[in-house]
Design brief:
alpha+beta; Jelly Rolls; 2 domains; six-stranded antiparallel beta sheet; 11 helices; 13 strands; 23% strand
Length: 325
C-alpha cells in the first residue's frame, strides 16, 4: 500500500495538535473579523445579496478585478502550513469531479468561489454535457493552464423562465468552436442560457467565480454537447435540491415511516422536485404512493408531470390486473 503523509499525523503529540488548532482558530477569527468589517468581502456580498443578479454582479466587480485581498488570504494560509504541515487552514473546500475549489464567502443566493481544474482533469477530452442553471456568473481567469474554452448557448423564452418550461419544447444547445483562455480576462454569463466547458491544457486552470442564483421556476438543464439534445432536468432551487437528496437517502434506507415527507414534497412549487419525490415514493412504498400519483395524474399544473404520472399510474393498473388464466 502506498504510504500517505497522513500516516505520520502526530496522533500522540497532544501539545503539537493543540498548537495547530489554536493557530487555525486564531486565523479563522481574524478572517471573520476582516470579512465582516464594512470593507470586508462578506460585508460586500451581503450588501448585494438582495439586488437583481445583474446589479449584484456589477456592484461586486471590483473584488474580482483587484485580487490582492485573495493573494493575501492564500499567503496567510500558506504561512499556517509552513508552521506545521498538518495544520488545517480555515478554508471550506467545495466541488468535485473535474472542478474543485474553495468557498470564500456567501450570502443568500450569492457565492464567491476560487475554482481549480487540475491539469490531470483536463485530459484533452471535450465535455460530454453542458449544464444550464438560472442565474448570473462572472469569472475572472487567474491561470489558463493552456486550456481552451467552448461556449454553449440555449434559447430560453420568457414563458419558460416564468415556469412554463417543458422538455418537449426545449430549444437545442448550440456549441461554438473552442478558443484559448486568456489570463486576466473576465467572462460574464447568463447561466440560464450560457455555459462554458474547458478542454486540453498543460497546467492547472484557476478561476475566481461570483455566482448569483436566486430561486427560479426554471429548472437546471443538462444537454448532450455532441447532439445538442436535452438529456436531464432537475430542480434549480437549492432548498428543493437538498430535500431531494434527503428523500433519496431515506428511500435508500427503506424508511417507509417517512412517506409523509415524500407526499409533502409532491406538492412542491418546483415541478422537477415534485416528480423526483413521486418517483422516490413509488419506489419506496407503491401502495402509499398510489393516491398521490392519481392526484398528480389528474391535476398537476405541469403537462409533462401529468403525463408521466398518468403513464406510471397505468403501469400500476396493469400490474394489479388479474391474470387471464
Amino acid at each position: 500500500m502506498t504510504a500517505s503523509r497522513h500516516d505520520h499525523f502526530p496522533v500522540a503529540d497532544l501539545p503539537r495538535r493543540q498548537r495547530m488548532r489554536a493557530a487555525a482558530t486564531t486565523l479563522a477569527e481574524r478572517w471573520k473579523a476582516e470579512d465582516d468589517a464594512p470593507a470586508g468581502v462578506r460585508a460586500a456580498i451581503r450588501a448585494v445579496a438582495d439586488l437583481p443578479p445583474e446589479q449584484a454582479i456589477a456592484a461586486f466587480a471590483p473584488w474580482l478585478g483587484d485580487t490582492r485581498w485573495l493573494e493575501g488570504r492564500l499567503g496567510q494560509a500558506l504561512d499556517l502550513l509552513a508552521g506545521d504541515d498538518f495544520a488545517r487552514p480555515p478554508l471550506r473546500p467545495v466541488g468535485g469531479g473535474a472542478f474543485g475549489g474553495l468557498l470564500l464567502a456567501e450570502a443568500g443566493p450569492v457565492r464567491l468561489t476560487l475554482l481549480v481544474r487540475p491539469v490531470e482533469a483536463g485530459g484533452g477530452e471535450e465535455a460530454a454535457l453542458a449544464l444550464f442553471a438560472p442565474g448570473r456568473v462572472r469569472l475572472r481567469i487567474l491561470a489558463t493552464g493552456g486550456a481552451a474554452v467552448r461556449f454553449h448557448h440555449v434559447a430560453v423564452t420568457a414563458a419558460e423562465e416564468a415556469g412554463g418550461f417543458t422538455a418537449a419544447a426545449a430549444s437545442p444547445c448550440i456549441t461554438g468552436r473552442p478558443r484559448p483562455l486568456v489570463t486576466g480576462e473576465t467572462l460574464s454569463l447568463d447561466t440560464a442560457q450560457e455555459a462554458i466547458s474547458l478542454t486540453g491544457g498543460s497546467g492547472d486552470v484557476l478561476m475566481l467565480e461570483m455566482a448569483v442564483q436566486p430561486p427560479s421556476p426554471l429548472p437546471v438543464r443538462a444537454y448532450d454537447v455532441g447532439s445538442g439534445r436535452l438529456v436531464h432536468v432537475s430542480a434549480s432551487r437549492r432548498d428543493s435540491s437538498f430535500r431531494g437528496m434527503a428523500l433519496a437517502l431515506l428511500g435508500a434506507f427503506g424508511r417507509t415511516d417517512a412517506t409523509p415527507l415524500f407526499a409533502a414534497e409532491t406538492a412542491s412549487e418546483d415541478f422537477a422536485a415534485r416528480w423526483h419525490a413521486m418517483r422516490e415514493l413509488v419506489a419506496l412504498d407503491p401502495a402509499a404512493a398510489h393516491p398521490h400519483l392519481a392526484h398528480m395524474a389528474a391535476s398537476d399544473p405541469h403537462p409533462e408531470v401529468r403525463r408521466a404520472a398518468a403513464a406510471t399510474l397505468a403501469f400500476f393498473t396493469k400490474e394489479s390486473a388479474p391474470c387471464p388464466a
